[in-house]
Amino acid sequence: MKYRILSIGHTGAVMSITINNTLSLRVFYGRYSPLVKGSSRKDATTGTLSFADASALRNAVRKLQDYNFEEAHEDQVQEKLTAFAGAINNTLSSAAEYSGSSTPVKNAVSKIKQLNQEYSSELKKIGITVNKDGTMSVYESAAKNYSRERYTEFFNKDSKYLNDLYDAAKKITRRVDVRI
Questions:
Q1: How far apart, in whole angstroms, are the C-alpha atoms of residue 89 and residue 46?
Q2: Given pLDDT bands bounded at 50, 70 and 90, which one contains residue 21?
Q3: Which structural domain range is residue 138 located in?
Q4: For the chain, how many structural domains are there in total?
Q5: Containing H/E element for 137?
């Protein structure tokens, strides 16, 4: 399944980004991998979707911190970046919908958006744009245009951004009721 995202670049040009239902995204979702697809997402409860998306984001953070970017092919790096952005975007979307029934989830959504804005210049240096609503867009050729060392440095285990992002996602998974 492919998704096409259009966004305006810093030069004012329209950039088109295609997000695939990738192996990485399915791995991030683990046992909730059916919820990567649109039809399954529509049928899931808001709580289940929020839990699955936040769990996928937590998995994405940990797996990217352990990933060897320098040994990977550029297509693999691009897939990882796209899946990471997809997990964040899905989490923001589903948790924002759920947050009407939970102040801690609402606060976690705000924290993720705030983190994305705070680190937007660092993210841009690796080919990820933070949109005004806190979601992310990945440049089509990010992995081709940026060095693998930048990804290794950004996605390291000591990254305050990633560790704070993980904690915010963990708050969501601890507070959602999958029955709702």
A1: 15
A2: low
A3: 23-175
A4: 1
A5: strand 136-138
- Mean pLDDT, residues 132-147: 94
Pairing of strands 136-138, 2-8: unpaired
**6 falls within a domain:** no
Alpha helix locations (H) across the chain? 23-29, 38-43, 46-66, 74-98, 103-118, 120-124, 142-145, 148-154, 160-175
Closest CA to 75 of 124, 29, 22, 1: 22
More reliable by pLDDT, 14 or 122: 122
* Cα of 132 vs its chain's centroid, Å: 15
Residue 36 lies in a domain: yes
Q: How far is CA 8 from CA 2, 17, 133, in A?
A: 20, 11, 14
Q: Is residue 80 part of a domain?
A: yes
pLDDT tens readout for residues 84-101: 999 999 999 999 999 887
For residue 87, tell me if it sits in a domain: yes
